[in-house]
Structure formats: structure tokens, C-alpha cells
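re the bet — no i am not wrong, look at it urself. input seq straight from the record:
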Amino acid sequence: MVMGRRAGRLLVGAAVVLLTGGCSSAVSGTAVKVGGAAVVEPTTDPVVEGPNGPKAGAPDPNLTVTDDAGTSFDELAEKTLADNYAFYEEVFPGEFDQQFTPAKELISYDSATGGEACGIDLQDRVNASYIGNCDTIIWDRGEMLPMIDKQVGDLGVATILAHEVGHLVQARLDAPRTSVLLLEQQADCYAGAYWRWVADGNSEYFDLNQTQGIRDVLTAMTWVGDPIGLTADNDRAHGSGFDRTYAASLGFTDGVKRCDEITEDEVRDRIKQTGFTVIPENFSNIEITDTFIQAVADTINVYFTERIPGYQAPTLQTYEGETPPACEGATPQFPVGYCPSSNTVSYNLAELQRLGTPTAGWASTNGDFSAIIALATRYALAAQAVGGVPVTGDTTGLRALCYAGAWASWMKAPQGPQKLSLSPNDLNKAVYAVLTTPGPASDVNGATSTDVIDQVQALHVGVVDDINQCYAFYS
């Protein structure tokens, strides 16, 4: 968010993404939601803690790789590609009435020492790509894959390469080469569809649980989101971390056919970074103070008062220590919670400051809005508690996150007494909060059994659609 003109500062700072992992040429792809959003139902799969990551003892893939250096990253890349090939060989006949064929060539290289692929000089090319004009997938084993592995883990590396196979899929389906944004997010969607196949126990090389595994996959998507200031109409745009995580979640829940059905119209209706054409001066995280939290709460109250008949603005109070104030009839939540019996939102300032402090400066995907979205979801519980309606259960938690997303979207224009407004990276920071803690999607007792995928989609529905859709989808 941006504070009013007098303050001249941004509420939520930017996480400058170092990578633009995606295709430099040829086919790119994008998974997007239809304008006016398709109904999103929570998945029925339980949250599973089970095995996660590369399977021990998996056989070596039978793939030929040009300039294979035999590094651990080459091995991981080859297992990912072999696994994706197996997935598409299985689903293509039924979904697309044709056979799937692998890429003509696979090339490993080290961007520090260079190399060549399809006539392209690979010196300093920190990337992974599908190059359509020579039907080739390439990856940088020297910097790109190690960087993703360090930031996210093995599943992050596998996700980037699954995205590149998504571009190969587009080539096999003769996908129209329209905007890069459409094509890039479609590839994100295909990657999500592959990971669902893995989660269902079909993979020879990987396990994926629906807690940490899904978090790793979606975190990788946030790391390769567009840098701040690159808008959706830019011919290099791939989508923000917010956009890309939803695209992957769509493939996970709806499958490869849905990815193929994405259109340019959907992209225009769904991608929400458009409009952030100028990075404000002093672009940074705003310090979370009691005064700032009160200013944010004022905007939330304005929003819900205008939209929820009978909404009563909760009393806002702070406390110290790890024990929140007692709440009759509900379990008090740390660091921020809502008490229906007293209509009070309470928060621990020190913990919200910790949650809202970037962990790695400009390279961080978290920041002040990571804490603010948690606050907003507790006010969203108050918006549901009108007339004494119980605010417990999974649906309540998802609706609270959806309501908070709708409020965040409203904040794209200056709102409230302090004229706060959303900043270009705020939605990425909200996704970070959802990926790292179940709190934003929990009910009044801090309980939820919903999957991370469901939670990401609930946030997205709120941002892209209006608050009425939140109630329609989660009722």
C-alpha cells in the first residue's frame, strides 16, 4: 500500500525477483481464470503430511542430455523431465486425442562458462527455457537451478522445469502464439496439473504432500514472478507471484484440459498487476506501528460498513506477551484474533512487526502486507459474525481470506482517512503469508483443515471478483 501524499511512502515494499525463469523465445504460457471466475470448490483431498521430494532409489532416467555434467542439478532436471514425459504420455491420448512426443534435444549448461543452444550464446544466460524453433529444453546448472534450490528446495527446481515442459506441451498442441503473458501462465497451469498427478501417487521420481510440498511448488512460482514495475501489457510479462501461484493452483485442481482452454480474454480479466506502471518514490516497507495498524483498520471498517449490512466495527486493542486476551466462547488466537462475544480484534504488535519485516531485503517475497493480510482476515470474521452468526469451520476461514482479498483489491485506489492504497507487491506478500501459515484462512478458533491450494484460490477469488462472489463460492 501507499500512504497518503503527505507520507509519501509505500505500505508494502517490493521483493525484486532476481529471476524471470521462463522462455526466452518460442512458446510461453499462462493459466488464467475466466473473467467472472469459475466457481471454485474446496478440494476433498485431506491435508497430507506424508513423503515429500525426490524419491530415494529411483532409477536413472533414460534421457540423452547434451553437455550433461553429471551434477546433482542435472540429475534432478533429468528426473523431472522424465517424470513429466511420463505424465503427458499418459494424459495426452485421453485429453487431447493425440500422442505426446518429447523434446528433440535437452541441453545442460553453466552460464558462467557459456555454451550454445540453437544458435544462442548461453554465456551469462541465467535461465531455463524451451526454445521452440529447435524444439529444445535448456537449463543453467551453474547458477539458475542452484539459486532456486537454495531459496526453495528440490521441488522448486522441479517446478521451474515442469513449467518449461508446459511450453513444450503448447508446441505439441499448436497453441496460438499470442501474448507472452497468456503463454507463460498457461505453462504455470500445466506445471500445477503435473504436480497433482504426483500428489496422487503416480510419479516414479517424486513424492508431493499437500502441506509443505504444495508450499514449495507455489513458493517457486512467487520467486519467478515479474519484477515490480513490469506491467501486464509489457511484452515480457509473465505474471506476478500472485498471478503465477493461482495459475499453478488452477492446473492442480482442474487438470491439463483447463490449461489448454485459457484465452486472451481470461488474461485481460484476471491479471491484476495492470495499472502499477510507476514505482512510487521511497518504495519500501512501512514500519508497522500501532498508529499504522489503526490506519489500516480504519480502511477495513469503511469497506465492510459499505458492503455488509449490520456490520459493527470491532474494538481494536493491543497486548504484550504471547497470551492473547480471554474470549468467551472462542479460543483466543496469537498474534491477531477476533473475539465475537466482545466484538474485539486484538493483536500483538511485536509479532506483527516480525511477520511484516522482510527476511532478505529486496530479494524477499514477504513484508509488511504479509502481516496486514492476517489482520484483515480477522476483521473479515467480524463481517461474517453479523447477527451472532457462528464464525467457525473451514468455509468461514476461506471466506474470511476471500473477503480480505476483496478489501485488498479495493485498496488499489487511495482509501480511508489516511488515503492508504495497495502497492505493486502487496499481493505477493499476501500469498507469502498464506503459504507460510494457515492463520489467514483459519476460523475464529484458529482452526482450518483446508489445503494450501484452496487457500490461495480463496485469496484470488476475493481479489479478482467482488465480495459477493466470496459468499457465493464459500457458502
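see?? The chain has two domains: 53-262, 290-473. told u. also The beta strands are 53-54, 105-109, 116-117, 120-121, 128-131, 136-140, 206-207, 315-319, 336-339, 344-348. so pay up
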